[in-house]
Amino acid sequence: MDKRTMLDRVATSGEERLLLGHVWDKYDQCRVKNIPAATAFLSPQEQMAAQRLLQAMGVMSGYVFCGGYDGAERQQLHFLPDWAWEAEEGSIRAVRCTWYRGESPNHRDFLGSLMGLGLTRDAIGDILVCEDSADILVTGSVADFLLSSWSAAGRIHLHTQEVPLSQLHIPQPKTKSVRDTVPSLRLDNVVASGFSLSRGKAAEAITGGRVQLNWTPCTKADRTVEQGDTISLRGLGKCVLESVGNETKKGRIFVTVKRFL
């Protein structure tokens, strides 16, 4: 199957087609020149799209996803030549910001400031905000720019320095466990339970295109959800179906859903 036909088949939108074309170009660059090649930072949804493409192409090895630390949400896709086993050193760097005590900048403050500098979202990986510092994962070339030019997020003065990836400050996510029973493992039932919605509101959100299942848009309210699946609802965040238990005497199913706050 030629490249154009494959992209038309795999991509779910024009925007995604452009992304997958870029992924394919990086794959070809690595294969033809036998050198490492990496994409920009990809969101979880974009990573899933890239994996669909690679599966359709029959590419089962020779690549890794890397975000700078285990569990990173935004990651680069690295294609490896036959002489390499891991992503190139320096392809991802970390810039740590600190500020005066009493200030409390958040994720949005940092992202807005970075975008205000002219950076695109795909040049920025995870933004790890802790109580007194924030570590920003960026592509190698962007790190030098931030270290020399970035001094404030809004009205908050910043001090920046580079830190090794091994010394990242990784905040613990804030979550709460929701224990409930559902009539079945339909997507609308689990969305209603995880986000404290009525089943009707949950179904409306799904059919309205606001829900992703494992980072892929899903508009089918009757789609079956499995233990470990991640559900995202635009405007309300994400949750994970953490466990599925036994049935009650009335046939309902015990579930535990971990919601990220």
Q: What fold name goes in the CATH topology slot of the largest domain? A: Structural Genomics Hypothetical 15.5 Kd Protein In mrcA-pckA Intergenic Region, Chain A
**Helical content, roughly?**
25-40%
Largest sheet: 6 strands, antiparallel
How many separate domains make up the residues?
3
Structural class: alpha+beta
Mean pLDDT: 95
In spatial order, strands of the major sheet run 10-15-14-13-11-12
CATH superfamily of the largest domain, by name, is RNA-binding S4 domain
Helices and strands, in order, run as HHEHEEEHEEHEEEEHHEEEEE
Number of helices: 7
Task: Tell me the Rg in angstroms.
Answer: 21 Å
CATH class of the largest domain: Alpha Beta
Give a brief rundown of this model.
The protein is of the alpha+beta class. The chain has helices at 3-10, 14-33, 44-57, 107-116, 140-149, 187-194, 199-207, and strands spanning 37-38, 63-66, 76-79, 92-98, 124-129, 133-139, 152-153, 156-157, 159-163, 175-182, 211-213, 216-217, 230-233, 237-247, 253-260. A hairpin with a 2-residue loop joins strand 7 and strand 8.
